[in-house]
Write a structure and sequence with these properties.
It is built from 13 helices and twelve strands. The chain has about 325 residues and is of the alpha+beta class.
Amino acid sequence: MNALSVNELAYQLAQKLLVNPELYGVAVSKSAMGAVIVDAGVKAPGGFEVGKILTELCLGAAGKVDLGFKSYGEIDFPSVIVTTDFPAVACLGSQFAGWRIKEDDNIAIGSGPVRAIALKPKEVYDEIGYTDKCDKAVIVLESNQLPTEILIEKVTKASGVAPENLIVVVAPTASIAGLTQVSGRVVEVGIHKLKTVGLDPKCIKYAMGYAPICPSGPDFEVAMARTNDAILYGGTVFCAVEYDDEAKLQEIINQTPSMMSKDYGKPFLQIFREADKDFYKIDHNLFAPAVIIVNNVKTGRTFKAGKINSQVLLESLGF
């Protein structure tokens, strides 16, 4: 497994943005330390295509992303479709937004393959049995501002990667690229929830999923809430697993969908405000896809739990 370098793969993929920034609506610059900064939506326009690449970079290029339309009840809506044959490594070892990089009052949410070098957080890599050793790295920041030298120094110190070998790609949540890559976390959210309720992520051999890409608007809080609703009420995840105890597997799957949460059934913006805008007051069981489908390749049986909630989803999306 360790022969797969998510940083090497992502670094190669990122060259598309560096070679043709105009095509992808990005702005490329260099920090004083020599790190390459790719603005995919802070000041640059960005767009769907860079959002697709951004999602693949988050996956360490160990997954593929497609854009298209899917049906959610009465409406077809732009959607992101994610496929990976390396679910644990791509989703938990790279894409998981597990690195909160604090600088004064600003916190940038770091994801992407550099985490597999810096081991942020270490327990994830212990659990999936993966680390990456590479002299090049890519980090994706969900942030409303471009990285400072202090933030870049924190990343290079934690990873040991020289600044000139680091590519930092930045997109705000409310940008088109940001909205695309957050909805593109649908498979990761599903795998993380399966792990939380007792499934060893290493038994997941292949995974695929889709979720709507939220409409853009000027309000960050609304954008953040919509991206949650996209997965909670519109996200579908399929996993192929190797599992011996099917009674236990069925029990795990039944606990996975977002509808198992006591907070389920309202737009996330309402839930967030009722919790005094404190994520820790929200039932953690809510953070899951609407539908989970699992095929046990050892028996050929397939299990499903959850449902698309088009009513709440369409309300959240502004219809």
